[in-house]
Amino acid sequence: MQTIHMSDIYGQYLTMKAEIDNAIQEVIKSTRFLKSGKVLDFEKKLADYLDTNVVTCGNGTDALQLAFMALNLEPGDEVIITPFSFVSTVEVLVLMGLKPVFVDVCPATFNIDETQIENAITPKTKAILPVHLFGQCANMEAILNSAQKHELFVVEDACQALGTDYLFADGTKKKAGTIGHIGCNSFFPSKNLGAFGDGGAVFTNDTFLAETIRSLANHGRKANYEYQRVGINSRLDSIQAAILEVKLKYLDEHIKARQKAARFYDEHLHGLSEIKLPGRTEYSEHTFHQYTIQAEARDELKKYLESKGIPSMVYYPKALHLHEAYASLGYKAGDFPVAEKLTQTVLSLPMHTELDEQQLEYIVNNIKEFF
Ligand SMILES: *Cc1c(COP(=O)(O)O)cnc(C)c1O
Which sites are catalytic (predicted)? Predict the structure, then answer.
């Protein structure tokens, strides 16, 4: 049996090697490493796939920063976020002088608990920032309703959910990241659509906002050496764009491969009373950036799997409100019991496009053996 990886970027590369190698060579020959037509080509193709405007940038964290720069909020304005995610959301808000206000998550989906959002809204609230964690969308219809009622912006952190379909009650479908005012995406190598380095993108249906974000990502540029606003330098380079353009063609296929592996886990692990499988909803597809189970004996299980050559990861071992860096926000242990409990019980199993049945069988058999 092949070595089991948490994610298998090299194995996936081998399935597209000739195309990717050619695409990289083309960029090298052109020597247009930055701001080339390649970047615009990729943006156009991703925009067609998502049916929205796309502005690429340096990484997913920059995408979040650009989104909030474009919204022109005032220092001290409040933004509602989840404490169970990667650090980028809280980091960007604090860097920008905005005030993150945490709302606990749903125990089954790990996403922000939409029923608690209205309680957190104050006259200073300006935006809601849901994260579509592990590949599954938060309850966007409820979030959009609250946002509309209180005149708030909705910025989606779709970094883990590129390609996920969201289903509205009326049957309309939209892709994760294209539902709110602005969506943010990362092309970090292990993401659903991963570059061979850093990359990010901002999505918006609003053409005016898209142009503002494009200018902000390019030093606030209006025309050549004319600067209209204070911006940053954040761009996707041409080699990454060329690689992503090849990989985008296979994104739906790659998502199907993840979903197939997830189905195997579902079918073979359900009924094990010691673990809880990832919860599903009627409103969101799941594209399984991660397949994350919950177990009281999480740490022991992780060690056991390791001893059998099976990697697993804890996303995330600490809730965001409990980090030293954000102590000044004034939160304490016990404030968000669901998120805090999850940090002690979650375990993400190997999940990628190259897992075969033999590997999956070995993984589930060892999990069963442990219990
Ligand atoms: C990966 C990720 C980010 C940050 O993306 P970078 O490209 O590493 O800056 C932000 N939020 C979430 C939820 C992520 O998974």
Answer: 191
Domain architecture of the chain: domains with CATH: 9-248 (3.40.640.10), 251-370 (3.90.1150.10)
> What pLDDT is attached to residue 256?
98
User: How many angstroms does the Cα of residue 186 sit away from the middle of ligand 1?
Assistant: 6
Spatial separation of the C-alpha atoms in residues 86 and 63, rounded to whole Å: 14
Q: In which residue ranges of the chain is pLDDT below 70?
A: none
- If you write DSSP's letter for every residue of 41-65 in order, what string do you get? HHHHHHHHHHTSEEEEES-HHHHHH
Q: Are strands 182-186 and 173-175 parallel, antiparallel or unpaired?
A: unpaired
Residue 54: in which H helix or E strand, if any?
A: strand 53-57
User: Do the beta carbons of residue 253 and residue 49 sit within 8 Å?
Assistant: no
Name the DSSP letter for residue 331: -
Residue list, ligand 1 pocket, CB within 6 Å: 59-61, 85-86, 88, 131, 157, 159-160, 186, 188, 198, 200
What is the position in ligand 1's atom list of the atom closest to the CA of 131? Answer: 13
Q: Is the whole-model pTM more than 0.90?
A: yes
Both structure tokens of 24: 């990289």
The yes-or-no answer on residue 191 being catalytic is: yes
